[in-house]
Every structure is written in structure tokens, then in C-alpha cells.
Amino acid sequence: MSYRIAIGNNKGGTGKTTTTVQLAAGLCQQGKRVLVVDMDPQANASRRLGFRFQESDPVPTISEAIKADSKGIAADAITAIGWETPYRDFIDLIPSRFDLENRISEAAVLGAISRLRKALDGADDRYDFTLIDCPPSLGHLTQLALAAVDAVVCTLEPEYDAVEAAVRTRDFIDAQAAELKNPGLTVIGYIVNRVRTSLGAHDFQLEGLPDLFGDRVWVHLAERTAVKDAADAAVPLAEIKSQSAREQAAAYRELAARLIKEAGR
Ligand SMILES: Nc1ncnc2c1ncn2[C@@H]1O[C@H](COP(=O)(O)OP(=O)(O)OP(=O)(O)O)[C@@H](O)[C@H]1O
Ligand SMILES: [Mg+2]
């Protein structure tokens, strides 16, 4: 059985997609098989992994898999990523497209909340990890992910609004886990992204994090141009030839090792 993780925060731009994609790369480098599920209609994870939806040659995406409401149906939407070997041998993708927005209106349908879990059950057994990239909301699309996973990882920046949103995300999960038919679901790790140590305001926020999240703050990742370059070029960090890219790739490998340990895989 795959260990499923939702990567979320109720604030945009905190690095959810970056973490999903580069953590998948880090897990691959440790020989783990990863399925990335893009649950954001923006489809950023899909693009950054080298996938483009073509209206002229449509393939099933996560939107169709959820709509179908059938056990294991997500297997039909699994596709290879555009990255080179070895990544494409270890990482697969269930892509997204804007049509995923249309699943929100189905939220009130009886049993709708379990549709992603149902679609994935039996479809992701051959992977070690399933990483679900969430949109920056706590609405239906994120709730579908929360109902399907073993644990949540929250990304934040050392900025007031992002920290508040991380607290909101944690409290929402604590309060709604049972309602989402996933009692016991918790945020197992907080990834602090885009840290600028030269900024006093960041230092101030970083100091307060242990009080809020204890030893679940897994890592501080620096703000680095290489991260943006990798995202724009739709490649793993290891493809960017700079010292800072190498350092950041190493940080994601460490993060992957931490996840493997926490998940007991
Ligand atoms: N450590 C970093 N250093 C520099 N740029 C970064 C870093 N992390 C993320 N970025 C950039 O910041 C932007 C937002 O990151 P990302 O898309 O991962 O956030 P997100 O939480 O998925 O956003 P959304 O809420 O829109 O889905 C992207 O352009 C990304 O390349
Ligand atoms: Mg994103």
C-alpha cells in the first residue's frame, strides 16, 4: 500500500507545488516509487513535471477520475512524466486540468467527499508514496485529498499570513478529520520555505514556530533562484547547474529521508 500525503496550506504561493514536485525527485533518488496527484485546477504540478493537457488529444485527468465515482478508476489517468530517466522510471503523474473546478459543484452529492479515496484505492498500490498537491484553499478539492490520505504535510513561509494559514489548516484538520471520514488525520510535518535569513521579520517568525508546531517543523528551506528556474523549465533541481541548485536538491533529498523515516517506509 502506498503511503499517501496531502501537501497543503490555506495560503497561496507557500511552496506546496514546489515541495510536491521536488520531494518526488528526492524520493526517487532514494529508490522510492512515487505517484504525484495534482488536485489543483491550476495544474502547476502537472506542467512542472512536463505534462500538458491537449484539447485535441484529451487524456483522462484527476477530474474525470473523481467524476466517475468508481473504485480504482484513477489507474486510467496515470501517465508518465516528461522528466528524463531515472525520474520517469520512478515518478508517475495523475494530471489536472481546469475542468477540475467543476467537481466543486458536486460537493453536496451524497458520498462525494470519498470519491478521490475511492478512485485511488487499488490504483496506487504499486507506489511507495502518493503525493497529492492541494490548491490554496480548505474547500472541497482539498477536502477530497484530506479524506484520501494517511497524513498531511504543510508548507509555509516565515511570514505572518502564511503562519496564520498553517495554523488554520492544522485546526481545520483537527476539527474536521472525523467528518471527512478520516479520524486521526494530522499534519505530520511543517516545511518552512523561502527563508531569507537576512530578514529580521523572518527570524522573528522562525523563532515562534516551535511554540506553534513543536518538533513537527521538519526543515527550513532557503529562497533560491534555482527553485524558480527549475519550476519554470519544468525540470528537477538536479538539472540546474549551480551550487545553490545542488544545495537545494540535497535539502530535498534530506527531506525525503525524513519523510521515509516518519512514514516508516
Ligand atoms: N525556495 C524557493 N525559492 C525561490 N522561489 C521559490 C521557492 N519556493 C517556491 N518558489 C517559487 O514561488 C512560487 C510559488 O511556489 P509554488 O507554486 O510552489 O507555491 P504553491 O503553494 O503551490 O502556490 P499555489 O497556492 O498557487 O498553488 C513559484 O514561482 C515557485 O517557483
Ligand atoms: Mg501550487
Q: Secondary-structure map with pairings?
A:
Layout: E1 3-8, H1 16-28, E2 34-38, H2 44-48, H3 62-68, E3 79-80, H4 87-90, E4 91-94, H5 115-120, E5 129-133, H6 140-146, E6 151-156, H7 160-176, E7 187-195, H8 200-213, E8 217-222, H9 225-233, H10 243-263
Parallel strand pairs: 1-5, 1-6, 2-4, 2-5, 6-7, 7-8
Antiparallel strand pairs: 3-4
The protein binds adenosine-5'-triphosphate (ATP) and magnesium ion.
Residues 12-18, 40, 42, 44, 136, 193-194, 221, 223-224, 227-228, 231 line the site of adenosine-5'-triphosphate.
Overview of the molecule:
This protein has 265 residues and is of the alpha/beta class. The protein has a single domain, classed as P-loop containing nucleotide triphosphate hydrolases (Rossmann fold). The protein has ten helices and eight strands. It has an eight-stranded mixed beta sheet, with helices on both faces. α8 links the parallel β7 and β8 (217-222). α1 packs across α10. The longest helix has 21 residues, at 243-263. The chain is globular, with a radius of gyration of 17 Å. It starts with a strand and ends with a helix. Magnesium ion is lined by residues 16-17, 40, 44, 133. This is ParA family protein. InterPro entries: AAA_dom, DNA_Partitioning_ATPase, P-loop_NTPase. Residues 5-174 form the AAA domain. It comes from Prauserella salsuginis.
